[in-house]
Amino acid sequence: MTDWSPMAQPLAPITSVRPQPVDGRSLVERLRLTAVSACTALMFVPALALAILTVLAIALAPVGVGFVIALGAVPATEQVTRLHRRISGGLLGEEIPAGYAPTDGTNIVTRPVRWLRDRARWRDFAMLAFSATGGFVLSLLPVALLASPVVHLLGAVVDGGVWWWLLVLVDGPMLLAWWLVTPSLVRARAIAERNILGHSRVETLERRVEQVAASREQTLDHSAAEVRRIERDLHDGAQARIAAVGMNVGLAEKLMATDPAAAAALLREARETTVSALEDLRSVVRGIHPPVLADRGLAGAIEALALPLPLPVTLSLDLPSALPAPVESAAYFAVAECLANLVKHSRATRAWVSASHDGEVLRLVIGDDGRGGADASGSGLAGVAQRLAAFDGTMTVASPAGGPTVVTLEVPCPTSPRDSGPSSPRTRHSSGSA
Q1: Which residues face 364 on adjacent strands?
Q2: Does the predicted TM-score (pTM) go above 0.70?
Q3: Which of 69, 93, 144, 428 could staple 13 via S-S, CB 3.0–4.6 A?
């Protein structure tokens, strides 16, 4: 049974602003929007007070009092505008993001300065001014158009004066106006608030450019570090062993005629050194792109990671048979780092890994029942976030004290059925070695 009460779903999107037939559903919709208008009209009181406090904070900043006012007014403004975002976003059926500049590392003196330079905070101030002026008028009109006929009718019944009955005669046009304009007025205010509080296209592009630039810088740093690691591994490992092979072969060549036994011993040593050099080369290549990915795909590679862990690991893997190699590699090393952190720090008794792909996004979830408190800014998880950022991927860490810890990795990775082949869902338990 449908709930037709006016405030059953106060933030549901506006269905239509076109004239509707007079029926129960349309009446309930207009009553709902009128109730929302009454609430937003009342919000002009805190909006006006906070607008005045904001002006005072700016004016008195040189003498220090403004900083104290700002420390109370700006957070309160954030809460008020958050409510406006929720109401207007709900009426329009979309989300209105805030996008405040981070204030990490600031104190009671530098934080107001950061607020002063934040365009999102200035949009909040503009919202206060609009809510106390034009927004108040837009919200008051539907309430006044509906309330006036009710007041006139009650006055005529109670008082019985002729003037009340004359006012009742003109209430018909007011009710018609209420019926026709209420959805448009409510939607107009919601659109105005979205335009005031939302990001402009230029700001969105600027923020995106900043994110891409930061991701590119991190990726270049990571790539440079990888190159230095490979060079170091080759120099200290395979290159040194190959140089030793060359020296042993040269000495064996000189001793071949005079001391064949010594020459044979040098050649055997050179052969053993060659085997060690090949192992070093395989280790270097394995660090660039693990062979298990090429042999078994990402699902098989995750199984291989979980198998030797010293605790039970539940795997739920539903992945295409083939994903882009760079994404597979990044996801593999990200899961490997998360599992390594889990074993080192979590004190968990069990863990789980799930992987899925919906055709657009690769999603990996690594969790454990350990003590929690994982820090997303730590070197290990920060490295995972940097690795994924190169692919516009994200990492979310939920790790309250006492656990559990859940790390969610998402990487945009559109694939077509023709390219990816059939999916390979599997769920298994890896008991590990205690």
Answers
A1: 355, 409
A2: no
A3: 93
* Bridge partner residues of 409 (DSSP): 364, 395
Per-residue burial over 204-221, b = 16 or more CB atoms within 10 Å of its CB, e = otherwise = eeeeeeeeeeebeebeee
CA distances from 267 to 167, 240, 408 (A): 115, 17, 53
How do 351-357 and 313-320 pair as beta strands?
A: parallel
How does residue 187 score in pLDDT terms, banded at 50, 70 and 90?
Answer: very high
| For the chain, domain boundaries | 24-197, 221-288, 296-430
**Strands laid side by side in the 351-357 sheet:** 394-398, 405-412, 361-368, 351-357, 313-320, 423-430
Pick the CATH number of 296-430 from 1.10.10.60, 3.50.50.60, 3.40.50.2300, 3.30.565.10: 3.30.565.10
Q: What tens digit of pLDDT does each residue of 244-287 get?
A: 777 777 887 777 778 888 878 877 887 777 777 677 666 655 55
Classified by CATH at the fold level, domain 221-288 comes out as 1.20.5
Tens digit of each residue's pLDDT (9 = 90 or more) over 344-377: 888 888 899 999 988 888 999 999 988 888 877 7
* Contact indicator for 319, 355 with CB cutoff of 8 Å: yes
Residues facing residue 408 across a β-bridge: 365, 396
